[in-house]
Every structure is written in C-alpha cells, then in structure tokens.
Design goal:
The structure is a single chain. The protein has about 140 residues and is mainly beta. It has 2 domains: about 40 residues, no CATH class; about 90 residues, Jelly Rolls (Sandwich), CATH 2.60.120. The N and C termini lie close together (about 10 Å). The N terminus is likely disordered.
C-alpha cells in the first residue's frame, strides 16, 4: 500500500477584521484543552482510487461475491447499499451467507434503501444474497 502522510494543523474559528475576538477564541480553545482534543502526528491516507461497483442477484437464495477475484483493500473499508427499488432485503456476509432474514439466518440484513459499512481485508471475501434481480452497490478502498 502506498500512502501519503498528512500532518495535522491547529486551526481556530476566526472573524475577519476582529483581532480581539480571534485572540479570545484562541485563548478559550487553549485554556479549555479543546485545541488538543484530537492530536495526531500524521494520518496515512491510501492514494489509490476507490473500488466501486454493482452486483445483481441472479438467482434467489444464491450468494454473489462483490468481487470475482482477489481485490485487496488497504483500508478494509466497504460500504454496501441495497437499492430502494429492491423487492426484499439483501443479506451481507461470507460465501455461505443465506437469504434467511427471520432471525435464524447468518447474514447482516440490509433492507431496501439502506447502507452499511463493513471492514474486510479483501473485497472478494464479502458476499450478498437476496431476491432475483435485486441489486447492491458498493464503494471500497
């Protein structure tokens, strides 16, 4: 994974032409500790483009992988969205995810129109299952 490092900066709210107010704001943030509420030396940000796509459930009750080949994700972040026009919920899980949403199934239930974030090292490890012709979209990085 290649990354670029972004160093944080301290910024305070400012009011143009009002140096006395600006100074009071700085003093307030420094005195209360809010100026250091989040302190980071640097943040690693992936510099590759996100992976986006769509999958359609071809056969009701058959799990479909979000990627047909290994697709490593530097951040492991995957956002899955079930289209609002889907006939039923989509279930998200591993390669054995079922289409059972009655409390005895083994996937995360994603109702039509909902979006959920998952963390996996590789996009090909995440599957969806649902009703024929229902669609899930995703964005990953």
């Amino acid at each position: 994974m290649s990354t670029q490092t972004i160093a944080p900066t301290k910024t305070f709210p400012t009011y143009p032409g009002k140096p006395e107010i600006n100074q009071k704001m700085v003093e307030f943030f420094e005195d209360t500790g809010y100026a250091n509420a989040v302190s980071l030396d640097s943040i690693a940000v992936p510099d590759n483009a996100p992976v986006v796509g769509q999958v359609i459930i071809a056969v009701t009750g058959t799990a479909v992988a979000l990627a047909s080949e290994e697709t490593p994700l530097p951040s492991g972040y995957v956002s899955v969205h079930a289209l609002s026009t889907n006939a039923a919920a989509i279930l998200v899980g591993n390669d054995e995810v079922s289409n059972t949403s009655d409390g005895s199934g083994d996937g995360y239930i994603l109702e039509a129109g909902e979006t959920q974030t998952f963390f996996v090292p590789d996009l090909s490890l995440l599957y969806v299952n649902g009703t024929e012709d229902d669609i899930a979209t995703f964005s990953a990085c």
